[in-house]
Amino acid sequence: MALQSSGQISFQDLQDEFGGSYPIQANEYYRNGGLVTSNNSGVPTSGQIGINAFYGTQGALWSGTMSIGNWDSNNYGFLSNNSNQGSTYGYWGTNTNRGSSNYHRITTSPANYWIWDCYWNGYYVIMNMGTYYRNDGTGSYVEWNGWTSLTIGSTTFNRADHDLYSYGWYWGEVSTNPFGSTTVGTAVDIVII
To answer: Is 173 helix (H, G, I), strand (E, B) or coil?
Structure first.
């Protein structure tokens, strides 16, 4: 839940939203410093931080770094692919939480939710995210519905504006590359709120 857009914000409010340790120190809360994610563009990355920089900010449900791939000449991002994994199809910044098919685990409760595709093809953005294997043993596909927006680099896509696509979501008529680059291996921050 986002912090309020006016009024008093306490250090405890910051810690409740973003995490952190005691004693609370302002330098814990720089944007991209580990606790405050890139989607909170009003928060500085260094220097003096005023409490008003946190109006309307929100902690991430999940964030990670993707190294983008390029396949079929006009697809950029990450595509999980059982037989052809590697830099051509992009990869996450670390190999931790990788599934056997290059899926990237983002939650473990109430089920293991995974991102298996996140890419732009020159026309639309696709994000496939969910689970095939519920912890209750049913083995059925379940979408992860506990999110409100996806930020790729500095471009935010709201869940309310999406269309359902097979096992995920897509946003149509996206003419600008949200990854900001077409160079294979370029690191891009991905934030899910």
So the answer is: coil
H-helix or E-strand spanning residue 155? strand 155-158
**How many domains, in total, are found in the chain?**
2
Q: Which amino acid is it at 172? A: G
Percent of the chain exceeding pLDDT 70 equals 75
Q: Is the pLDDT of residue 100 over 60?
A: no
**Domain region containing 150:** 62-192
| Residues β-bridged to residue 171 | 125
Dihedral sign (CA 161, 131, 153, 3): positive
Higher pLDDT, 186 or 112: 186
Q: Which two tokens stand for residue 98?
A: 């990788």
> Which residue matches tokens 């077409």?
182
Looking at the predicted structure, is the pLDDT value of residue 179 above 50? Answer: yes
Burial code (b: 16+ CB inside 10 Å, e: under 16) for 96-124 equals eebeeebbbbbbeeebbbbbbbbbbbeee
150 in a domain, yes or no? yes
